[in-house]
Amino acid sequence: MTWQVLVSGPLLAPDHAISRALVRTVPDSVTERLSDLGNVPVAVPVLALAMAYAALRGRRLTALAAGAAMLAVPALVVPLKEWTARPGPLEPWAAGYYPSGHTATAAVAYVGAALLVRPYVRRPWPVAVALVLTGATATGLVLRGWHWPLDVLASLLMCAPLLIGVDRVSRRSTRRSSG
Fold first, then answer.
1. CA separation for the pair 148, 11 (Å, rounded)
2. How does 44-83 read in b/e, with b if 16+ C-beta sit within 10 Å?
3. What is the value of pTM for the model shown?
4. CB-neighbour burial class of residue 87 (10 A; exposed 0-12, middle 13-18, buried 19+)
């Protein structure tokens, strides 16, 4: 996707068409609230609370892994934004929309928090809630016109390895504590 953005490849035509069809089809007051779920002051405290809870329960390594994943988000997103300098759907004169930092923040914060509390809940709902919150953020960003669909998809794909790493540390930690 990054290559397509850099060379104005054929993936951009459907990306623009989807965006044109969706932007502002939902009231801004709704899409703005959904987009705000990816703001650092909203999402990061959720992860911080889950990290504190996991650390207090003896899962410090897993909490550190989730924190490291969140620290990796700006380290990955900011250089890509500068490199691609992609304009936004409603601001063709501005640059730095690819990939979506809000989507990446939401994904790592909410899914990371869910992975941290999952062993104590022993139910699938934390991950389901995290996926809904992340999806709501991504949807809000596209519907509001703050990001192209490829921007949010790229962020989700970029965060997947980070979250897989947190999950592996979490599962390893859970096996050790139960064994």
1. 12
2. bebbbebbeebbeeebeebbebbbebbebbeebbeebbee
3. 0.95
4. middle
Q: Using one digit for the tens of pLDDT, what is the confidence trace for 127-142?
A: 999 999 999 999 999 9
pLDDT at 174 over 70: no
Please count the other Cβ atoms lying within 10 Å of the Cβ belonging to residue 36: 15
What is the pLDDT confidence band of residue 122, given thresholds at 50, 70 and 90?
Answer: confident
What are the angstrom distances between the C-alpha of 37 and each of 78, 102, 170?
Answer: 19, 8, 24
Residue 146, both tokens: 């703050």
- What b/e string do you get for 137-174 counting C-beta neighbours within 10 Å, with b at 16 or more? bbbbbbbbbbbbbbbbbbbbebbeebbeebbebbeebe
Tokens 């939902």: give the residue. Answer: 26
Alpha helix segments (H runs only) across the chain: 2-7, 12-22, 28-36, 40-56, 60-84, 101-106, 112-121, 125-144, 149-178
32 versus 175: which is more confidently predicted? 32
End-to-end CA distance of the chain: 43
Q: Would the pLDDT of 179 be above 90?
A: no
How far, in Å, are 20, 65, 143, 149, 157 from residue 13 at the CA level?
11, 38, 17, 11, 20
